[in-house]
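Q: Is it fine to ask for two folds in a single conversation?
A: Yes, each is treated on its own. Send the first.
Q: Here.
A: Result:
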Amino acid sequence: MRKAYEREFEEATQAARNGDMRANATLTEQAEALLKEIEHFNRGLLRNFVPACSS
């Protein structure tokens, strides 16, 4: 999922460099949605994380 985010973000950057602000906005929005999914997934992992007890 992280690679998909990076790919979308890179495409958005390229669109901006090429002056295509509409594509940049769309791709940035998609990249941000992926980032939110990643963060949501990571929060779920942290919530369920139980540290090992050292004896």
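Q: Second one now.
A: Result:
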Amino acid sequence: MKKLIVAAAFALVSASPALASHYDITFHGTQRPAGHHRSLAVAKAASASCFTQTGTSPEDAPTQAYKDCMNAQGFRWIATKLLKDPPAKHEASGIPAGHFIDSDTGMLCRNSGGAAISVPPPNNMTVRYTSKHGLNCTRTGAMSICSNL
């Protein structure tokens, strides 16, 4: 007989971008009210309650007290994995304060009241963007090259 396991995975994301990782904690729901698995919302509520009761932090690896609390609420600990977060997207470097890159043209722009003034980026700046026609483009200075490759 194939046993159906409901694993409540809690991606507890670290608040600090410097850590660039989070814990993925997997539990097995041991209680079956009326023969049905409990919802993920119930598991998340139990998790939040256990973090509060044990004084532990979601940013840290689960403690034995946290695991015991979850077990008392009908969720048996299975595994904990430390996962690396994908790299964060960074703002393009070299853009002067108050300016932005137009995502349709790759031009360097600044707001001037009700209009934006756009100029080609400096020759030492390369901008990659997608044109309004869906082509991948690269702009360096006044030269823009687009390709569907």
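Q: Anything structural to flag on that second result?
A: Two points. Residues 1-19 have pLDDT under 50 and may be disordered. Strands lie at 7-13, 21-29, 75-84, 99-101, 108-112, 115-119, 126-130, 136-140, 143-147.
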